[in-house]
Each structure stands twice: as C-alpha cells, then as structure tokens.
C-alpha cells in the first residue's frame, strides 16, 4: 500500500514550472482576460507532474483554477501534439454531458506563449495509478471499475455526425490503418530480427475483423487518464485526448482489457480485491452498449503488436541517441516479450 501511495504522489499533483517549460505568464494572463469568460487575476502558474507529452499546467487565480495544455516548444511533426483536436473533442463531448473538463478557449497564435495551447477547467478529484486500488475501500473498487467501463461505453454510443465530429477521423477500416502505421513504426525503429513480429506483420492485415461500428475512440483509455469524484466511485473527467479519432470502438475497449494482462493486474486474482475479472469487465461493456462480444484473441494480438511497435520505437530512439533514461531502456526491453505474447494470441485466433 505504501508503494502505491508513493506512486500516486510521484505522478499526481504539481511542481514549480521547469525552466525549459517556462513562458511569459503576464502575456498569458492578458490573453485569458480577453478570451476566458469570468477570468480575473492575479495568475499563479504551476506544472503538473506525470508523463504528459503535451506540457500541462495548473493556473490558479483567487476565485478558481484552470488547466492549460500546450504543444511542446520547437519543431514538431505536422500531426503531433494536436491540441486543437483535443480542444475540439472535449468541447463537443462536454455539450453532450460526457464527463470531460469544460473547454474554455483555444489559442493557435504562437506569439502569446510560444506554442498553441488551450484552457480548460480544473476538475478536483482522485487519480489512481495502481489498478489494484490498494488504498481504496474494497466496496468502492468494483464500482470504480464499473464506472470506468460504463463511461467508455457511453463514449462509444455517440453518433459522431450528430455531435459535430463527422470529419474527426479518416474513412475506411481503422484496424487496417493502425496495423499499417505500427508496422511502419516498427520497421523504422528495427534493432533486431524478431520472428514473431515478422509473422504478425504478415498475418494481421490478412485477418482484419470487419468494422461493424464507427465511434469516437479515445486511443489511450486507462485508469490513470481519468479523474474520479473525491469521495464517490464515479468518473468526473476523462483526460488526455491526444490520440482520439474516429475508429472501431473494439480497439478502445480491448485496449482497456489489456490492463488485466499487463503489469498492474497481470498475475493478480482480482476477486479477493473485489475488482471485476476480465470476463466480467467484458460483460459490463456488453450490457451498457448492447453489443455482442466477438472472439477477443485477434484484438488482444493486435493490442500487443501495437505496444510492441511503441516499445520498438523507444528502442530506436535509444539506438539513435535521443532517449537514454532508465525508463526508456526498461520499455525497450519489453518488445520481444510483447511480440511473443501477441503471436500466442494470434495462434489462439487461428494463426499457424
């Protein structure tokens, strides 16, 4: 329990703004006075801990607090760190009553703080980093997981066209695009020959499941990307929409199920903890959406393959000298085990 609390403290909360992430706070305050309804300074700026790829700040005023997400400074890939997309999706979802922070304003003028950014409400609540929820009462654990799953189901039930997000993603088979994307990422970063990855690169595109539905997909829907009510076991805000798009909701849902197969819940019997089993989690989602659960093995193979593509990308950056910290090295070591696990699920789905 002490480790879990330490982990929550390590990643949660704020710190003074790092030197490399500083900006002209007076300019920001002037911009907010003009564009954020109800804003009144003076403004105090802190930076959130945690691993956000878009630097995230807590903006305090005498009457309320806000959150600012901005693009990193410097040259970026054209589609990377698209804060305008994040702002657009949380604006649309907030109008539907979906649990997101309130979107106040978007600034795409780099002259204000040096990069594009947006301002949203600061939602006060609990963020959980350890999925076993060791410092939560047992009777709340199942309810927390149920709220997480039902919130994702709610997201997947929106008609993108009806809420102004018809053009939020590309047409065509989502899994086809994703398999192609992560294959290219793997090839660009390849550091060793992994036989299982070669077989997956051949097998996955041949066996793509038919896309039955198109929905908004979050892209990184996991426990620590949401804020829970301070005392009640319910989601009050889903965070970090950087990877959101239109796609196959089964990608989002089966990524959520990966939590039971990865460090955190891997090898843990969830029943004594009063946490749903993987099968019970699938049933909660089915009950909430009315969909019938397909054979999950292909989807789990795909998710393991995607993660292997991500960790291989980290290995490539270590090779190129652009990533060298202990966490990067640890992540890179997971590529081969992920590839082997992915191929094992592929075999369960019929691969030979």
What is shown here, in short?
The protein is α+β, with helices and mostly antiparallel strands and 352 residues long. It has eleven helices and ten strands. Mean pLDDT is 90; it is low at 1-9.
3D architecture notes:
By secondary structure, this protein is of the alpha+beta class. The protein has 2 domains: 120 residues, Phosphorylase Kinase, domain 1 (2-Layer Sandwich); 211 residues, Aminoglycoside 3'-phosphotransferase, Chain: A, domain 2. The chain is built from 11 helices and 10 strands. The strands form 3 sheets. It has a 6-stranded antiparallel β-sheet, with helices on both faces. It has a two-stranded antiparallel ribbon with strand order 7-10. Strands 8-9 form a two-stranded antiparallel sheet. Helix 6 packs across helix 11 and helix 9 runs antiparallel to helix 11. The chain starts with a helix and ends with a helix. The N terminus is likely disordered.
